[in-house]
Amino acid sequence: MAEKLIIVMLNTDPNNGEELGAPIFQASVAAAMEYEVEVICTATSGRLMKKGVAENLYVKEGSPKSVYSFIQDAHEAGAKFYCCSPNLDLFDMTVDDLIPECEGIVGGAYLIEQIMEDDDTRVLTY
Question: Nearest to residue 27, comparing CAs of 69, 67, 57, 70?
Fold first, then answer.
């Protein structure tokens, strides 16, 4: 049985809040089930790791809970969030711009290595 889940948020558009709920919620659930969980935000989704972005996004209009609150919940459950390295340049960010829940920066080689060399890892992409 797999011990690790990597959720890659690649095609998930932060401008469409309803797309953000499922991957972050699944990260929370998997972490609560005591799986090792990593959420890698890349491409457009990389903006979620920038301070001030997720705080102003909502899965459902009128909801009192922001996407950032969902990220905090998943992080508290044990999920680790990462920003893909090209996002720093793409969105004019530095490491200091990242939310505290972001564990750090990973590159494409990290993701490929995890998928190809670790038989205990499963991947979901959004």
Answer: 70
Reference 95, options 83, 108, 110, 107; nearest CA is 83
Lookup: tokens for 66? 């922001």
SS3 102: strand
Which residues on neighbouring strands pair with residue 9, listed in sequence order? 41
CB burial readout 42-59, b (16+ within 10 A) else e: bbbbbbbbbeebbeebbb
Judge whether 67 and 59 are in contact, CB under 8 Å.
yes
Domain CATH for 61: 3.40.1260.10
What predicted TM-score, i.e. pTM, was given to this entire model? 0.95
Instruction: Name the residue with tokens 């390295």.
Output: 85
* Domain count of the fold of the chain: 1
| Digit-coded pLDDT (tens) for 34-72 | 999 999 999 999 999 999 999 999 999 999 999 999 999
Domain range spanning residue 65? Answer: 4-125
In sequence order, what E strands does 26-119 have?
36-41, 80-84, 102-106
